[in-house]
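Sample entry copied in:
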Amino acid sequence: MSPDQLVALALIGLAAGLLAGLLGVGGGILMVPAMVLLLGFDQHVAQGTSLLVIIPAALTGSYTHYRNGHVVLREAMILAIGGIIGAAVGALFALSIPEDLLQRMFAGLLLVVGLRMLLPRDLFRRGRPSARSG
């Protein structure tokens, strides 16, 4: 691996960790596309690498939030159980999908989530009043 690639990986990791800590998003939102588009990683390799890298970043960010009283442990544990099972099933499924289809699925997810966040929140409420109205 060239020194340029090492620097690029370090910068991608730094940016992903910053986003994870700042916005609470998985660094994979940045890491996977950056590894694929900037460094030429295979989609499967980028996703697997991202999942492994997120462990220490998530632990560090989670501990910082926990220390400041911003973690609800019971709900976090329930989410973790589902997340562990879902991650195992999802990883097995991802390995059975051709790389080009997996890339399109990842891009579609980013597009849907991005559009959903850009559009007004009330657009997606089904007959429920918004928290601000009342």
